[in-house]
C-alpha cells in the first residue's frame, strides 16, 4: 500500500500550510535535505552525482510534482508518498525542462516561484529562466528552514536515539583505548560502534589524543596514545538520515588539578547555557550569556557559536551565535557546545542535545555522563 503524506517523518502538513500561505505561487525543493524532507525519499545519487537533479514543485494546494532521474523512480515510488513522479532519462532529457513543464501546468509561468537559490547551480537557474522568462524568482530557503526548525515526535525520537547511540560508541571507544593505540585505532572502534548502534553511516569522527586535541576537527592520525594524554572527540552518525553530533572528553590516566579546574568551569558554563534553552530566548542572547560566563570564569572564548540546531543537516537554525534573532519555541532541538582548546597542547569538549519544551529544557544525550572527565585506567 502506498505511503500517505501523514506517514512521512517530517511535518508535511506544516510545510503544505506554509507554502500555501507564502508569497510564492509555487515552491521548488532542490537540495538533498529538502527533497528528502518533502518526499520522505533520500535520493543518494543526487548527493554523489551533482548533475543528477531531484526537484519537487509544490503550490501547497495541488499534489506536488517530483522530478528525478529514471534510475531512481522505482525507489521513489516504493519509499515516498508523492504520486506524480516525472522521470528523466539521463543525458537525454533535461530535468529543468520537466520542472518548467510542471510549473507551467501549475499556472506559474508568470508567477513568483520560490527556489533554493543557494543550492541550484547557476547554469540550471539560467535554463529555467529561459523557459519561464516572465516568471519571478525568490529564495525558498527561509521557508524550508523555518518548517524544519520544529521537530515532529518521530524526528525527536530519531535524534535522541542517534545521540545516545553515538555516545555509547564514544564511551566504548575511549574505554577500549590502550597506551600505544593510534588515533586511527580509536576511530575504528568509534565507527564500528556508531554503525552497530543503528546508524546507516558515519558522518564524521574527529577523535584525537594528546596535542592533537587542541584542534577542532583533525582527522584521526597515526599519533600513539601516551600516559597522561587527553582524549577528545567531536563525532556523529547518520541515523535514518538525521545527524548526531556529540562532543566528549576522556583522559588516559589520572586527572590532575588543572584538568579538574578547567572541567569544573566548563561544566558550570554548560549547565547555565542549557538552562537558558527556553521559549522566548534567542540564540544571540544565549551567545551573549556564554561570552560573559566564559569571561567571568577566565575561560578563552574565541568561537563563532557555541551550539546549533540540527536534523537533516549538522547545522540548522537557530544557532547559538551573535546574529541569531530566532527565538526558541517548544518542539525545537539544539546542541549546546562548550569547549576550550590550545593548539598543539590539549583541548576539552562537551556537546549535548537539548529539547525545548514549554517548561525546563530536557537533555536528551544522557548515556555518556559529562559531569566528570572519563578516566581511562591503564591495563
Word description of this protein:
This protein is of the alpha/beta class and 379 residues long. The protein folds into 2 domains: 5-148, Creatinase/prolidase N-terminal domain (Creatine Amidinohydrolase, Chain A, domain 1, 3-Layer(aba) Sandwich), CATH 3.40.350; 153-376, Creatine Amidinohydrolase (Alpha-Beta Complex). It is 34% helix and 22% strand. The protein has helices spanning 12-21, 32-39, 44-48, 73-79, 95-105, 122-131, 141-149, 153-175, 183-196, 257-275, 283-296, and strands at 26-29, 55-58, 65-69, 84-88, 112-115, 136-139, 201-209, 230-239, 242-243, 246-252, 308-309, 316-319, 333-342, 346-355, 362-363, 374-376. Strands 4-3-2-1-5-6 form a 6-stranded mixed β-sheet, sandwiched between helices. Strands 7, 8, 9, 10 and 16 form a 5-stranded mixed β-sheet that branches. A 3-stranded antiparallel β-sheet has the order 13-14-15, with helices on both faces. The longest helix has 23 residues, at 153-175.
Concise overview:
The protein has 379 residues and is α/β, with parallel strands linked by helices. 34% of the residues lie in helices and 22% in strands. It contains eleven helices and 16 strands.
